[in-house]
Amino acid sequence: MSMSSLAVPASPLLILNNMTNTLRLTDWLPTTRKELEIRGWDEVDVVLFSGDAYVDHPSFGAAVIGRLMESFGLKVALVPQPDWRGDHRDFTKMGKPRLFFAISAGCMDSMVNHYTANKRLRSDDAYTAGGKAGSRPDYATITYSRILKSLYPDIPVLIGGIEASLRRLTHYDYWSDTLMPSILVDSQADLLVYGMGEKPLTEICRRLQDGELFSSLTDIPQTAILKQASSGQHELNDQIYAENGIIRLHAHEACLKNKLLQAENFRFIEEESNKWQANTLIQAVGNCDVVVNPPFSPMETEELDNVYELPFTRLPHPKYKGKTIPAYDMIKFSVNIHRGCFGGCAFCTISAHQGKFIVSRSKASILKEVKGLIEMDDFKGYLSDLGGPSANMYQMQGKDLAVCRRCKKPSCIYPVICPNLNTDHRPLLDIYHSVDAMDGIRKSFIGSGIRYDLAMCATTDHSVDKAQPDKTSKKHKNISNEYLREVIFNHVSGRLKVAPEHVNSDVLQLMRKPDFDHFRQFKALFDHFEDERMKTNSGGRQQLIPYFISSHPGCTEEHMAELAAETRALDFRLEQVQDFTPTPMTLATEMYYTGVNPYTMKPVYTTKSKQEKLAQRDYFFWYEKESRDAIIRRLRRMNRPDLIKKLFG
Predict the structure, then answer these.
(1) Of the residues 127, 407, 536, 648, which has the maximum number of CB atoms within 10 A of its CB?
(2) Is residue 166 predicted with pLDDT exceeding 50?
């Protein structure tokens, strides 16, 4: 469906024609006072503020939350990227909502969105029309909430999204280089929803519609509140203790004085975030307590299907006519088939926000969304992605969920793949085959990266005769190879992305990533299947693209030199690389700030200066002339002529 087909008729309704639909301005959530008037609304129940441009698509959190509340019968207005400067008219144009204001900084933490790993201001913003930077403030959740509280002190403010979620307790903020308290403190918000917000928001809206006061919503799972501490409690705030389903963490002020206390807190926070049946977390800050209620149990397939089948137009709001939104262009013809990630990588926020338990959509729901894409005017038959946070975790969960309910490990596949984890790729293969068989689909690509350790994992097949173990082993191998062969033959758009992240075993252990030998084995399989594909295909040779990180806690310059030599020996010239950026609520960030591993309390070397970080990054580009001389000088100082020889001959 092309935005060029938008036309403004004489009536106040904007019409968008497509092969099967006629869309009107009222098919989007209202974003202006005029759009409220078109609907005949004098007031709304909820005003939702977002740091992103408004794209009415299930990959954009504000659209999902807005559509969900709309499905409850609520009148919802959405104000995308309000102007926080000047007279704040964007914060007043919708008037007072009947129930509450809601805030999301957007699909990214606003500081990650704004700054590079070296704290340089980015020149673009993928979630803004035209890719233009500067349409949201630093610490957007705090800024928006403070403005609303100053304008409407009597109206409750609810905050959510990834920025609020990962900052719900004391956290290290890389950009200010400070330990910050819960975002509830600085934002002055009344309630925080963490993680994927559909279940807590459903309960919030239900109770408000039943006549409860917002101030009574203190016990809803997967929410956090700031409350006045009762007398006597703070005597124990510099000690962690657990009792009657409550864990009281070290107080914020205690963590400011002692980094090791922050490290101790983190282990409890991460473990409770990854438990099916978690405890309540309480942390003192000043004369208040931050109370984090345990999360809801994972969503069911039917619940997730209902979210993706809300009446999204799948288009940016017509106000952006003629402007591209880069993040939307990337996912316009993609389909998300599951949520969650059980990888537990030390540097990643996905499991911290979405959770480690995989929630998969039904095959029927996935095919229904694909059918809708096929009917769009500008769809040419190519799906850009059919995946999730990790493309190949669809329908993978514990074989015995009772075991999962007792587990608190942050990863199901590190240090080894859990024997209780179902790693069968056949349901995913069925999705691929069913999608590719649909009229109108020429090819479906896997744009999101795959977990290569999972892709090579033997799959238990109980239908095979256990009395014939040799055949069982062969069947296991064939199932794994079948998945890899299918991906390489039919679903790679020139490049297959995987993420070994490093080559050094000690660094990989701190990252919670598999040993590099797994990648070597995977590359051999990739080359084997690619050679086979080339014999039957006239197209060009596909590439395996590995992702790597520099300056991760535990990584020294010598480790980076080893990475350069190892990848050169495998004939890679690296492109997909990044410098480690500490983001709130990740294990790697806690190691970066505290200098210890929270799980062992042993010291961890960390590169912090800009010069050291740039020196590590140089090794990615050993093949560039401007990097060569500096690398040789540094390797000579390290007394590593062997690495000079490996890199430069």
Answers:
(1) 127
(2) yes
Q: What separation in angstroms does the CA of 629 have from each of 470, 578, 612, 648?
A: 54, 22, 16, 11
Based on DSSP, count helices (H) and strands (E) in the chain, helices before strands.
25, 26
Helix H or strand E encompassing 89: helix 89-92
Nearest of 382, 335, 399 to residue 361 by alpha carbon = 335
Distance CA(560)–CA(602), nearest Å, equals 22
| Residue at 326 is within a domain | no
Could you read off the pLDDT of 39-74 as tens digits, one per residue?
999 999 999 999 999 999 999 999 999 999 999 999
In a domain, 574, yes or no: yes
Residues 454 and 590 in one domain: no
**Residues 57 and 113 grouped into a single domain:** yes
**pLDDT of 4:** 31
* Residue whose token pair is 């203790």: 241
Contacts of 314 (CB under 8 A, 6+ apart): 1, 56, 57, 58, 332, 372, 373, 376
Residue 518 CB partners (closer than 8 Å, separation 6+): 452, 453, 456, 500
How many CA atoms lie within 13 Å of 209's alpha carbon, on the beta-carbon side?
Answer: 14
- Contact predicate 318/281, CB 8 Å: no
Torsion of CA 599, 601, 607, 609, to 10 degrees: 120
Cβ-count burial 554-566 (b if 16+ within 10 Å, e if not) = bbbbbbbbbbbbb
Contact 173, 586 (CB under 8 A): no
Per the model's pLDDT, the better-predicted residue between 537 and 489 turns out to be: 489
Task: With a cut of 90, say whether residue 449 has pLDDT above it.
Answer: no
Average pLDDT along the chain: 92
Number of domains in the chain: 3
Enclosing domain of residue 367 = 333-476
